């Protein structure tokens, strides 16, 4: 069973489909590489909770959720992100200035993340990061608009995302749906345990529990069309999305917290 009372079975993706697509320039705050004292840190995306339980023997590029009465099938789920940064422990936050020593930037963006629906993760971004202890990831869920060159270039390459930051397609009780959101705000995700960047490469995974997105406070599934802009469940689903993301060290890319070291740090 998934979280919030939702029964979930993630159906495995066939044919070696691409699991996540990220477009944009991959950068680090510092131009230094290994010899300059930095270490490689990669960032992956995946599903969690009820969204991340594959259904054995089933091979389809879909995620199927049920509450016992209603059935929701997610066929694609995409998000636009930008300004993704790791924040050092006990700092006041990232400020987007190049001289900010408290944060390490992975990606300026905007860039598109297509979430894997088969319970796996995909490595998408790698950056050189200064040694230190990091306890938070900051990024924007971003609605591309026609006010910057970066947004205009992104919209030209992804025309379905003009003024849209999240796009989900699928079926609800057999009826096709398209859910879109203009959620546009900074997200601060505290790592489950502080991450120490030291003498070896590591990976951090951001997981998203889609099984909670289209759920009422009682756990019953709702029609995603009732959460589109101006519809009665718009704010409910936006809040569900905000609460569905977590981050942790995940060196083996299995979508689970790294368990070789109880504090998930690198010695």
From TrEMBL:
Residues 247-259 have a biased composition (Basic and acidic residues). Residues 247-267 are annotated as: Disordered. It comes from the Bacteria. This is DUF4382 domain-containing protein.
């Amino acid at each position: 069973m998934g979280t919030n009372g939702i029964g979930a079975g993630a159906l495995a993706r066939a044919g070696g489909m691409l699991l996540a697509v990220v477009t944009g320039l991959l950068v680090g705050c510092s131009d230094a590489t290994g010899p300059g004292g930095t270490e490689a840190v990669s960032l992956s995306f995946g599903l969690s909770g009820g969204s991340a339980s594959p259904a054995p023997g089933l091979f389809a590029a879909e995620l199927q959720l049920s509450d016992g009465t209603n059935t929701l099938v997610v066929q694609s789920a995409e998000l636009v992100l930008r300004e993704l940064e790791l924040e050092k422990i006990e700092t006041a936050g990232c400020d987007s200035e190049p001289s900010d020593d408290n944060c390490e930037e992975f990606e300026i963006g905007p860039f598109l993340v297509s979430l894997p629906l088969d319970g796996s993760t995909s490595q998408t971004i790698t950056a050189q990061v200064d040694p230190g202890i990091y306890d938070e990831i900051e990024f924007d869920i971003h609605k591309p608009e026609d006010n910057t060159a970066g947004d205009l270039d992104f919209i030209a390459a992804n025309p379905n995302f003009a003024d849209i930051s999240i796009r989900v397609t699928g079926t609800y009780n057999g009826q096709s749906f398209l859910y879109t959101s203009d959620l546009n705000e900074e997200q601060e995700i505290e790592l489950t345990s502080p991450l120490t960047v030291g003498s070896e490469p590591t990976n951090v995974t951001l997981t998203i529990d889609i099984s909670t997105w289209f759920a009422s406070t009682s756990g019953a599934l709702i029609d995603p069309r009732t959460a589109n802009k101006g519809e009665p469940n718009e704010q409910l689903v936006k809040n569900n999305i905000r609460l569905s993301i977590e981050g942790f060290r995940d060196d083996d890319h299995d979508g689970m917290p790294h368990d070789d070291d109880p504090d998930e740090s690198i010695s």
